[in-house]
Amino acid sequence: MTTRVRLTYEDYAALPDDGRRYELHEGELSVTPAPGPVHQATLRNLVVILHGHVSARGLGEVLPAPLDCILEDATIVQPDIVYIETARLSVVSNRGIEGPPTLAVEIISPSTTGIDRRRKLQLYARYAVPSYWIIDPLAKTIEAYRLTRGAYREAGTLSGASAVSLPPFADLMLDPRETWPTL
Q: CATH no. for residue 37?
């Protein structure tokens, strides 16, 4: 019989700083390659858009990866972008975000599609992250999910050429021309 090792934050903090992206998913180590240029350009564009909107209205903080989001001692993730509304800023600490952010954003890459669409969708729901966006920069889509009674329900999609608002930002119209990189 094989005993599974359940890693904790202490184990995670001791991992080497070798350029890999480490996360703990309920005690299990997850390692993914560094993202590519389209991923990073999409990340940059969205951080600029979201940060501008949030800071102009005093709505909280928008922070890009890498940033530890410590959902529990054995579940540490690094969403590509996190938004923490003003009323919940107490979750920000020197270690990272200690508890669920208001919004977790994952930009999928070929190596992370399954993780972001299944494993992280389940983790974020389990740890009560109110909103989750899955972004596919190649398909040029943003799928927005809202937590309802412990499960995510699709709450909107950005696709095509029309601007839309997605939760938790009812008054922000995301313009596809500003969202997607030209790489």
A: 3.90.1570.10
Answer yes or no: is 84 within a domain: yes
pTM of the model: 0.94
Torsion (CA) 119, 20, 60, 72 in degrees, nearest 10: 50
Instruction: Identify the three-state secondary structure at position 154.
Output: strand
Q: How many helices (H) and strands (E) does the chain have?
A: 5, 13
Q: How confident is the model at residue 18 (pLDDT cuts 50, 70, 90)?
A: confident
Where does the pLDDT of residue 34 fall: very low under 50, low under 70, confident under 90, or very high at 90 and above?
A: confident
**E-assigned strand segments in the chain:** 21-25, 28-32, 60-64, 69-72, 75-77, 81-85, 97-98, 103-107, 131-136, 141-148, 151-158, 164-166, 169-174
Nearest C-alpha neighbor of 152 from the set 123, 127, 121, 106: 121
